[in-house]
Amino acid sequence: MEGLSRSWLGPSGFRGWTTVGDRVAGGFEFQWALTGSGWATYRITDGVSEHSDVPSYCTDALADLLAGVAGLYGSEAPQRVSFDMEPAEVRWVLRAAGKTVTIDIHRFPDLHHSSRLPDGDGECVWSSVQPRRVVAHAVLEAAQGLLDRHGAKGYLKKWAEHPFPAAELGELRRLHRERDDCAH
To answer: Where are the domains of the chain?
Structure first.
């Protein structure tokens, strides 16, 4: 696992956070960091372009992301994950085609008005096609790194509204091991 340190001033005035994430293959990397009370920062890159954002605790963002990635192992229906940026919405649309995933990240100016809008009405701020196993492994490692760093109680204390998504992490780990033949 690779951890990167960055300095950043977030909404709560917190400075100096450490991301925990995983670079697994071909430049794909995902990190998720708790940056203050009720705030997180994520960064996703495919080695060509990158995107980062600051979701709030108004949604159970990490749990929703873990469930969305786990959903890639089921039906062919797109998985949608919405993050509240107070007031903006960032919506991840994950589309599986066999063992490949297309990730499109759309930004909408106001979550209260965008929840019923089609994905295409938002600005596409990042897009990439990756092997499902690479995406699942990176998201799994980022979530496990948070648990290792903060523990369940520390996570709840920092995230403030939702407990650590242990069930969602366990389900993604199970699917990743079974279907991607990963020992992690």
So the answer is: 2-180
Q: pLDDT category, 75, cuts 50, 70, 90?
A: confident
The tens digit of pLDDT for each residue in 150-172 reads 999 999 999 999 999 999 999 99
| CA nearest to 108, candidates 126, 80, 81, 84 | 84
Closest CA to 101 of 74, 61, 141, 63: 74
So what CATH class is 2-180? alpha beta
| CA 10 to each of CA 20, 36, 40, 56, 85: distance values in angstroms, whole numbers, following the listed order | 17, 7, 9, 11, 12
Q: Return the exposure string of 50-73: e unless at least 16 CB atoms fall within 10 Å of the residue's CB, then b.
A: ebebbbbbebbbbbbbbbbbbbbb
25 Cβ contact partners less than 8 Å away, ≥ 6 residues apart: 131, 134
Q: Calculate the CA dihedral of residues 179, 24, 38, 172 and round it to 10 degrees.
A: 10
For 126-154, how does the pLDDT look when each residue is reduced to its tens digit (9 = 90+)? 999 999 999 999 999 999 999 999 999 99
